[in-house]
Design a protein that fits this description.
- The protein is mostly beta strands.
- The chain contains one helix and five strands, in the order ββββαβ.
- Strands 4-3-2-1-5 form a five-stranded antiparallel sheet, with helices on one face.
- Strand 3 (30-35) and strand 4 (41-45) form a beta hairpin.
- The chain binds zinc ion (ZN).
- Zinc ion (ZN) is lined by residues 15, 17, 19, 35, 37-38, 40.
Length: 66
């Protein structure tokens, strides 16, 4: 699966703030994510990131259809 900047991911485990939805800010060998609930930014290596993702919502599918 290809992850792109601005995609939304839902993780298996909640962030300590209770949220589990994240926006991708950067991809590569490390992935930078912003918690959509509290706004905190975290970095994960790609492998740990992939293990944590429960659902991936590509940015393309977030657009409303006309
Ligand atoms: Zn949070």
């Amino acid at each position: 699966m290809i992850y792109k900047v601005k995609d939304i991911v839902v993780t298996k485990k909640n962030h300590p703030c209770g949220g589990n939805e994240w926006e991708i800010l950067r991809t590569g060998t490390d992935v930078k994510l912003k918690c959509l609930t509290c706004g905190r930014i975290v970095m994960l290596d790609l492998e740990s990131f992939k293990k944590r993702v429960k659902r991936h919502i590509p940015q393309d599918s977030q657009r409303e259809t006309p």
